[in-house]
Amino acid sequence: MNTRPMGVIVLSMLAIVTGFVSIVSALALMGVAQFGFLNGAAARGSVLTIFGVADLVIGIAAFVLAFGFWYSRNWSWSLGFAVYGIALVVSIITAALGIMTLGSVIVVAAVSVLTIWYLLQPQIKGTLGH
Predict the structure, then answer these.
(1) Among candidate residues 83, 82, 104, the one with its CA nearest the CA of residue 93
(2) How far is it, in rounded angstroms, from Cα 58 to Cα 66?
(3) HSE-up (13 A, CA, CB side) for residue 79
(4) What are the backbone angles phi and psi of residue 4, rounded to the nearest 5°?
(5) Would you say 83 and 61 are in contact if contact means Cβ atoms under 8 Å apart?
(6) Which of 94, 102, 126, 128 has a CA positioned 20 to 30 A from the CA of residue 43?
(7) How many CB atoms lie under 10 A from the CB of residue 49?
(8) Distance between CA 31 and CA 53 in Å, rounded?
C-alpha cells in the first residue's frame, strides 16, 4: 500500500477547508450583491458579484486541488500556487474595497503564504513530482 506523507494529507485537508469556506463566502457575497441591485446600488452589487464569482472559482479549484494533493498529481503543485496566490490577491483587493475585514484578510494571507512556502519544501516538491 502506498502511504501518503503527512504533509500531503494536511495540504489536502486544507484545500477542502479552503474550498468550503470560499464557496460559502461566494454565496454570501452574491446574496448580498442582490440587495445592492434591489436598492439601486448597482455598482456596489456588480463589484460584490464579481468577487463572489472569483470566490466561487477559487472554491471549486480548491476542491480539485484537494483531489490532486491526495493522489499526488504533478499538476497539483502548480495549481496550489495558482489557487492560494489568487486567493491572496482577491482577499487583499476585497479588504481595500471594504468588502472583507482586516482579520479575514490576515487569516487568508497567512494560510496562503504558509501553503505556498510549504509547497516549496523539498519533500513536498518531490512527492508532487517537482
Answers:
(1) 104
(2) 12
(3) 22
(4) -90, 140
(5) yes
(6) 102
(7) 18
(8) 11
- pTM (two decimals): 0.86
Helices (H) and strands (E) counted in the chain, each on its own, are: 5, 0
Q: Position of cell 456588480?
A: 46
CA–CA separation, 111 and 80 (whole Å): 12
Cell of residue 74, nine digits: 504533478
pLDDT tens, residue by residue, 73-112: 999 999 999 999 999 998 888 888 887 788 888 888 899 9
Helix orientation angle between 42-70 and 6-38, rounded to the nearest 10 degrees: 160
Domain segments of the chain: what residues? 6-127
Amino acid (1-letter code) at residue 32: V
Nearest in space to 48 (alpha carbons), one of 97, 1, 3, 121:
97
Q: How far apart are CA 104 and CA 28, in angstroms?
A: 14
Grid cell for residue 72: 499526488
